[in-house]
Structure formats: C-alpha cells, structure tokens
Amino acid sequence: TTAATPAATAVNVDAVRASGADAERKRTADILAISGAEAYKRFDLADLAGEAIRNGMSVDEFRSKAMDKMTQAPKQTAEIGLTRTEVQKFSFLRAMNFLANPHDAAARNAAGFEIECSRAASQKQGRAAQGIMVPFEVLRRDLNVTTATAGGHTVETDLRSQDFIELLRNAQVISGMGVQYLTGLVGNIAIPRQTGGATHYWVAESGSPSESQPAFDQVTMSPKTVGAMTDISRRMLLQSSLDVEGFVQRELATTLGLAIQSAIITGGGAEEPTGVLATVGIGSVTGGTNGLAPTWDHIVDLESAVSVANADVGTLGYLTNAKIRGKLKKTFVDGPGTGERVWQNGNTPLNGYRAAVTNAVPSNLDKGTSSDVCSAIIFGNWADVLVGMWGGLDLLVDPYTQGASGTVRIRTLQDVDIAIRHALSFAAMTDALTA
Q1: How many angstroms separate the CA atoms of 106 and 184, rounded?
Q2: The whole model's pTM is what?
C-alpha cells in the first residue's frame, strides 16, 4: 500500500511579510521607548539602542544590556582633588576654632587652608556651606601617626585608624548587621531594581509561548540633611595634638552616627529618610488586640514572613531593644520550666540568627489599650538597606549658648538618604509587651 502524501499547505507570503514587518516595528518601538524613557535619559542609551536595532537584538536582550550599562555607569565624585599630604594637613580643630572666633585674625590665618578646602567642597556640592565644609577625602583619611614632628604640633601615639566614616558606622550597632553604605555621592541617584520576572508557559506541539518581559523600576535616593550636636571646650579647640583631633572626630562621628541609625529604624519620610518600620509593604506579625508578650512563635513567624516572600537571603538578622532582649531571656521556648530560653547565649542568639540590640528601636509604641509601652522586633535582610551619604560634612560652631562655661557647641550637618531595596526583605512585630 502506498502511503498517502500529505497535502501541501498554502502559505500566504504577504501575510507572513506583514506579520514580520509588524514584529520588527514593535521591536524597534519598544527599544526606542526604553532608551528614551525619562528615568533613563541621563544614561545616554541612544547608541546602544541603535546597535540593538541594527543587529536584530531582542527587546529582552537590549533591556539586559541597558541595565548593565546603567549599573556600571561612572559616578560623579565628591572629592576635590586633595593630595595625600593635603588630606593629612586638614584640621577639624583649626576649622572649628576659626568658626568660634571669626573676628580673630590669627584664627583665620591659621585656618586658611581649611577655608579654601571648604570653598572647593561647597562648589563641588553645588551649595553654600553654613559653616566649614569638610571635604570628602578628609572624612576618609587615616590619622595614623608613629613619630612626632618638629615644633610639638603632634604627639607620638600608637598606630590607630581614625577614619571618620568608619567611626560613624561603628557608632551604629545596625552597621554590623550588613547595612550597605554609598559614600561620596553627588546629585540624586537611581538604582535599577527588577520587580517582576518573565513568565513561563507549557505549549502544545508547534505552539509558541506568549511574550512576557521582566519588569523594572528604580530605587531613588536624594539628599536629606541630618544635624547632630556635641559640646567641646574652648581650650580643646586650641590644641594641636592628633590625640585631640581624633577625639573630636570620634565625638562628631558618634553623635551623627546615632542620628542616622535612628533614621534607618524609625525614619518617617518627608524631611527625613524613610526607615524600615515606616516602609510600606514590610511583613507584619501581630501579637494581640492590645499587644502581647513576645514568644517563640512570634520569632518563628517573623522569619516565616520573610521566607514566604522568597526574601530569606543575604545578611539576615534581628534588631530590637534592651527590654525585648531581657524579656526573651526569661521566656521559655516550650513553656515555663522547659529549660531552653528564646534568647540564647552566643553570636546567633535568636533561632540561629544574629541579633543586635539598640534602644533606638522604639519601646513606646501603642496598640489598643496598651499606650506608650509596646516594643518593636525587626527581622530581615539588612543588606537591602542602603545608606547614601553625599559629599562633605558641614561644621557649624555656636560659641554663645554655653559661653559662660567656656564650652563651644558644635553642630554637624550631613546629607544622607536611606532606601530599602525590597520591602518584603523585612518583617516586624510592633506590639511586643515586656511587662
């Protein structure tokens, strides 16, 4: 028996050509739409778009290359071009002494270098300093010294690091949780973020899947000014010792660091950055109508909230206050008398995760009839917290408020912003009772 020959299928050539032309027009239009989007204009994607159109690159391939280019785009620097010697020469003490004694010719002359650096830093930042603008390079310097110089202007001391920005970070317990810092920024920044992935399909033989595309948006950061204050004696400002210079830097960095830490946790937006607890979309674990003492179940539920969102990756850990730590050390995992407490000893005290304690985590929250007594417990991937720091540090001096005691009040202003890359990387219980 002779096998039947399949009937030939007629092909509408014109329809195929038209379909191909439509697909090509759509591909070109999509690529041009992406490259011309307002959010991406500053990355100058026109050349890349032209190359993609000429070479038949798919929209997804172009989007991937565009994301790579945006991520690797050179950033403006906040540095003003000081040499290593000039960086070491800059003195916080001379700058503050001049600000405290603006009509003293000797103080002005002594701070001539610092004044010129301040002018250059202000120009680079595009805004006038309210006092003395400390250049970014100085904030990153190391005040190591092993020998004294002539004239008694320095003292011999042990090798030590006095990097201002590192000191600022160390002032925050939250920094040890893996928070990421972007320093020396100039202008607003936008960090690409993928918000959705391509969709997969099962198709019949000779079928084709529907077109799907990853979705992207941006995490934006713009400078917001934080101010901190500390008091230093007039006599201390007259010193030339590197020990005193380091002490003053530590005081300023600690004061400012604690202010930034508070914003990371509870910042409410508007004039200040939006912190973790105020971020819309983080996971929530509820104790009760009027709050509830935290238990083992609540700890597990916080972890589960993050895990269910597929966000349990990165530098995971807990952050809470001293009241909660004390309460959990007294709370048994499986009920009274079982022997195992919720908060264990060691480096990973909460169910195998690290935990940091700071009283910047609020203990005066409200829930129902429990007013001003509820605490917060936060769990999440702290690497998803980005702290942006713009340029230099603005120093202001008030010699009058504490003038009767011979004390000078130092105010520091720093441009900072905080961004949470993924809200679902965090979960919080904000109605935990400790009494």
Answers
A1: 32
A2: 0.75
